[in-house]
Amino acid sequence: MIEWSEEQRMARDVIRKWVEAEIVPHVDALDSGEMTPYGIIKNLYKTFGLDEMARNRFDAAIAREQAIEDGKDPEAVKTVDGGGGDDMGMSQLVSIEICRHAAGIITAMGVTDLASGAIMSQGTIEQKQRWGLDLLTKDKVGAWAITEPGSGSDAFGGMKSTAKLNEDGTWTLNGSKTFITNGPHADTTVFICKQYDPDVEQRQRKIVTFVLDKGMAGFEQTKPLKKMGITASPTGQLFLSDCVVGPERLLGGGGGKSKKPGKKSDPKATFMAERVGVVGMSLGVVERCLELSTEYAKTRVQWDKPIGDYQLIQLKLANMEVARFNIQNMLFHYLECRSKGKTMTFAEASAMKLYSTQAAVQVADDAIQIFGGNGYMAEYRVEGLYRDARIMRIYAGTDEMQVRAIARDLLSR
Ligand SMILES: Cc1cc2nc3c(=O)[nH]c(=O)nc-3n(C[C@H](O)[C@H](O)[C@H](O)COP(=O)(O)OP(=O)(O)OC[C@H]3O[C@@H](n4cnc5c(N)ncnc54)[C@H](O)[C@@H]3O)c2cc1C
After folding, report:
1. Which residue among 207, 246, 280, 301 has its CA within the 20 to 30 Å range from the CA of 295?
2. Which residues pair with 236 in a beta bridge?
3. 179 alpha carbon to ligand 1 midpoint, in Å?
């Protein structure tokens, strides 16, 4: 793949118009936290029929899974085509277009997808029907909680939250989570913790995952934390104190009445999806900074000349274009691999994330420099793009964690 197809370009134009009408007028309200992103996400899903596609795909997947459980041929199951297939290119285009203005919306949407992804990959049919579908259609908001005050990069090893199995088969959950996207508003939270076992050292204890509903006794979701950027996505803390839950909330453990146990989690697959997702987000920031900066360089006059005539400004614009070109090519490479059924390695996904996010931060910083004092003012938007870009080097694995993944791969050869 060397460019977007004609169909993708047409779709991009439609999405861009929609974003300009439905998101751009609300960027300030989203930035101040006056408005949450959830109405916009629902609007996006309804306008483009994404909710209906998700529902049809869900029904088809469940019908096939049920046929397998019942010992029937899953291929014989008649279903409505979900449409859209596995069009990762279209998802990336939506992400790029929205991140040109408010990357927090994609963060909020992406984390609801992480929650539904965990339920759909590890859950039983009952669990998928109870919690998965409403997250897939975005009728409900999801959170995915792994990070704790004492463990971020070392999320699995350092985790302290516990689930204790009671004699009656229920579980008692305790612990706290921090920096949880959608945490303040989530209807459904995927809570990852360790099974209490006094005979096993804390770091080695088994990871267990539960699905929690808003308002459950012993489960507190705090107000949004104040933060630097991606302000369109509320981020909060979660506190669990003696929260007693039934076995039907345990993922990957065959909870509920279903005969077939759910699958075990695959953290690497989740990390891969997160990393690649951030690449498209970086591209949205870079594209918008480049557009705004080029326009400004043509129109801002100093010493009777547009500042674009000065080589020091030209160098910044040229570096921005190199970054845009590189990130886009990395994304095309990923999309090409995917369309051919090839999986990129974890190190390759990490390399893409490391490069793209560092480049996005540098590009946004250069954009502010090109705008001078205006660049520091919210009205000119580049400062907002910088604030949005900065988190991309931290979440979905910090720069240092990407370096670690790449170096480990190189050194293991
Ligand atoms: C806005 C926002 C939204 C988030 N959303 C979610 C969410 O929805 N769900 C969720 O579970 N988490 C979420 N997170 C958490 C995020 O994934 C973590 O912040 C991130 O993984 C880093 O962990 P930490 O903040 O604890 O930093 P730490 O792990 O404490 O790292 C501090 C510094 O030390 C470095 N470091 C750590 N270990 C090493 C090492 N071995 N070698 C070299 N350097 C090292 C790090 O790279 C970093 O520079 C979110 C965070 C933010 C800020």
Report:
1. 280
2. 180
3. 9
Task: Confirm if 353 and 239 have CB atoms less than 8 A apart.
Answer: no
Give residue 235's domain range. Answer: 143-251
Ligand 1 lined by 111 (C-beta under 6 Å): yes
pTM flag (> 0.85): yes
233 CB under 6 A from ligand 1? no
Mean pLDDT over each residue of the chain, to the nearest integer: 94
Check whether residue 241 and residue 282 sit in a common domain.
Answer: no
Tell me how far the alpha carbon of residue 153 lies from the centroid of ligand 1, in angstroms.
5
Phi, psi of 244 (to 5 degrees): -95, 125
Residue 198 within a domain: yes
What is the per-residue pLDDT across 160-218, written as a single tens digit (0 to 9) for each?
999 999 999 999 999 999 999 999 999 999 999 999 999 999 999 999 999 999 999 99
Beta bridge partners of 381: none
Instruction: Answer with the one of 121, 140, 159 that is the final residue of a domain.
Output: 140
Given a contact cutoff of 8 angstroms between Cβ atoms, the answer to whether 41 and 138 are in contact is: yes
pLDDT of residue 138: 98
Rounded CA separation 108/110 (Å): 6
Domains held by the chain: number:
3
Q: Evaluate: CB of 67 within 6 angstroms of ligand 1.
A: no
3-class DSSP state of 207: strand
Q: How far is the CA of 156 from the centre of ligand 1 (A)?
A: 12
